[in-house]
């Protein structure tokens, strides 16, 4: 899997590293209330050391080809994360998860990052399917797979315990054949 990928003049994806712990922790702290609406793992991250432990685990999974986690950098500053978790080689499938600093939402950054992970998944890793799961009420997050042409496959009821209540997830999927067809049309239109 690639360790870095430049998306444009300002945005780059880079494999997360242990030394990113403080920057990720500060990102989480700045956005904790906003992220808490949709992400259930925030109560596991109280210190920089908690984040460092998570990054060590993520890197270990990367080395074992079980997952890949990328820092999203805007002009060199960490503004988010996007990852494959987990990669199921037996079935040729991976799930994309993501988070972004609220100050950078609405600029197409996450759509571009997801599009790049689709290229990695289908072209580099030769996977057959990529899934994205979003809380049904998270309209911004659900807009990303829709924009990229994913098929909405259904709603998973009570898919996650979010602190004190259950939330439903929308399941979006894209097959390698669908991705290649979309790429062929894009290339044809660009000519």
TrEMBL record:
Gene Ontology MF: a single term: protein N-terminal-serine acetyltransferase activity
PROSITE patterns on file: GNAT
A Gene Ontology cellular-component term: cytoplasm
Cross-referenced Pfam families: Acetyltransf_3
Residue ranges annotated for the N-acetyltransferase domain, each copy included: 11-168
Domain of life where this protein originates: Bacteria
SUPFAM superfamilies referenced in this protein's UniProt entry, alphabetically: Acyl-CoA N-acyltransferases (Nat)
PANTHER family linked: RIBOSOMAL N-ACETYLTRANSFERASE YDAF-RELATED (PTHR43441:SF12), RIBOSOMAL-PROTEIN-SERINE ACETYLTRANSFERASE (PTHR43441)
Protein name: Ribosomal-protein-serine acetyltransferase
Organism name: Ktedonospora formicarum
